[in-house]
Protein: Cytochrome P450
Organism: Stakelama sediminis
Amino acid sequence: MATSVDAPASPAAVDPLDVSRPELYRDDCWQEPFARLRAEAPVYRCEHSDFGPYWSVSTYRPIVEIESLPDIYSSEAGGIVLADVEPEADVKLPMFIAMDRPKHTGQRRTVAPAFTPSEMARMSADIRRRTAEILDELPVGKGFDWVDRVSIELTTQMLAILFDFPWEDRRKLTFWSDWAGDIELVKTPELRQQRLEHMFECGAYFQNLWNRKIGKEPTPDLISMMIHSNAMSHMDQYEFLGNLILLIVGGNDTTRNSMSAYAWGLNQYPDERAKLEANPDLIPNAVSEIIRWQTPLAHMRRTATQDAELMGQHIREGDKLALWYISANRDESVFGPDADRIVVDRPNARRHLSFGHGIHRCVGARLAELQVGILLEEMAKRRLRVNVTGEPTRVAACFVHGYRSLPAELSRY
Ligand code: HEM
């Protein structure tokens, strides 16, 4: 259970439609309140929550509208998670996901070349080789933790390559990512302090890597790209750290939880798993479907910079809005009455909002799809199936939506 400094005075004070409560995700019972919100109040003002008052936006159309109007709904004014940055208690770490135009544009352009189709083609043989190695080391018919042995290992290796990070230290990336991505950890001053210390440790480590690349020929890794760019080469230490954390969390927790969702999700729907096993050509669509079904980041936040109308609701300047991708991806009017299920050949799986929409749409989406796709392909080549042998442990948070552990066993089909 997450700690909270502002626990409501009485149970009556809990709003059953406050979908920011961490236990909903820990216990996997977020579906029902979101179904109600979509049906009854797709733009709903939640007055009382641990994060203060906020608007819950839970259907597809208003989320797309908000993300198409970045001047009205700012990523910078209040950041991208429901938790507010407290100026006196926090050090502000600027990162371009939480910047508005024009600064956002320049910084995004700097890292975008790391994710072009030609870069993906260049990286794919390497990703395939590493995936194969990991799978070939797994026991068949014997229990292990899928999250640790497959999801974390694959995504951490990928990040180490993207940053040209010392191989033997790569689990530090996982550690920092876990601390950075868990917004429950900002709820007490002690945890805030501990988190900040880890973030600075991360910054110091990367500063060292940066210093070693200064004055050297450009190499195809993200640190070298930042050093040789106009938009990012003069970042101060906070901005440098902020953007590093963005890339570490962005690339780590999300793809990791898609890989875990593949194992857990297909185990829930054996008929769909059989369909996929019989027809590996469905893999690209199944990847989108798994990312839709899981929604590895449950929400992003926006803050209104002026008064606005949204589906008949009056939004005031300064209001915060949670864009619940996790709910929009279950929107019956877009994905039909079976939106809660995985359907590996769902015709419009690619319309999901797990990567967001508009100018901030995930810059690493292609890489995430490539990694998950290769995992599925290599599993299919070996005719390997994941059988889940117990309940997963889930992350108790309303931002990163995923799994801490997943007991599993492999069999051949
Ligand atoms: C932005 C999700 C993988 C790096 C985002 C956003 C979402 C998201 C929801 C914000 C969109 C918005 O505000 O409209 C995901 C999911 C992933 C994934 C679900 C995996 C399945 C990755 C990877 C990387 C990455 C592999 C890099 C290694 C970023 C960055 C941004 C971003 C840098 C900021 C883009 C901007 O502000 O312009 N991602 N992401 N993500 N993601 Fe991802």
